[in-house]
Amino acid sequence: MHHPTLARFYDTFLWPGERLGMAAQRDRLVGGLVGRVLEVAVGTGLNLPHYPATVSLDAVEIDPHMLRKARRRVPQAICEVRLHEADVHRLPFRDGTFDHVVVSLALCTIPDPVEALGEMARVIRPGGDLRLLEHVRSASPGRSRWQGRIAPVWSRVAGGCRIDQDTESVLAAAGYTIVDIWRSNGGGMIQGVARPPA
Ligand SMILES: C[S@@+](CC[C@H](N)C(=O)[O-])C[C@H]1O[C@@H](n2cnc3c(N)ncnc32)[C@H](O)[C@@H]1O
Fold first, then answer.
1. Which CATH code, of 3.40.50.150, 1.20.120.140, 1.20.120.80, 3.20.20.70, is assigned to 4-195?
2. Atom number, ligand 1, closest to the C-alpha of residue 41
3. Which among 88, 130, 126, 123 has a CA at the least distance from the CA of 109?
């Protein structure tokens, strides 16, 4: 997957949202983590400055254009970071390697999220968990209708993103149990912790 234009403008496009609360959400997503962490679909690395020093981080990304931007952001991280060009459907790590897997704004773009969640479950150690921050199909009927209308165009400009995906159902289909969830007003964003199937 190569999206040079998306990679070029991604940070600019997200900048207003980051200022209006996404950066704080990213802090909440990864702020308290300790141990070995895998971030999948790291994109341009917007989460990297938010990890605490208590983390040893591996991060994968399939698009080399995104990965190049993430590499430039590594000096902003205060934890150890290793970046890898890899597909989340085939992670280059042994079973049970990680205490936590982190995913943000990406379950909507990964081509087969159920299969990818299975692969993430494989590399999470027993007792570990998945931390996620995702935009999802709105709980408001008006907004979800609007999401459905723009979905085809949105997918083309946003690298295949499914703006109207019901990600909680995707997690359930992959056998995950949600143990903590925050839903934004109108239900367009979720942040949470999910345990992989045993
Ligand atoms: C909307 S961006 C999110 C980037 C970042 N996680 C963030 O929070 O800003 C989605 C990312 O998922 C990546 N991606 C999509 N399919 C992937 C796959 N199969 N393996 C790894 N990364 C993938 C895309 O290349 C893109 O960088």
1. 3.40.50.150
2. 22
3. 88
CA 140 to centroid of ligand 1, rounded, Å: 26
CA-based nearest residue to 139, from 191, 184, 193: 184
End-to-end distance of the chain based on CA atoms, in angstroms? 31
pTM of the model: 0.96
CA of 155 to the centre of ligand 1 (A): 13
Q: What letter represents residue 83's amino acid?
A: L
Using the mean position of ligand 1's atoms as its centre, give its distance from the Cα of residue 42 in Å.
6
Contact by Cβ (8 Å): 88, 60: yes
Residues with CB under 6 A from ligand 1: 1, 41-43, 46-47, 60-63, 66, 87-89, 104-106, 109-110, 159
- Ligand 1: which residue has its CA nearest to atom 23? 41
pLDDT tens across 133-180, in order?
999 999 888 999 999 999 999 999 888 999 999 999 999 999 999 999
Q: So what's the pLDDT on residue 123?
A: 98
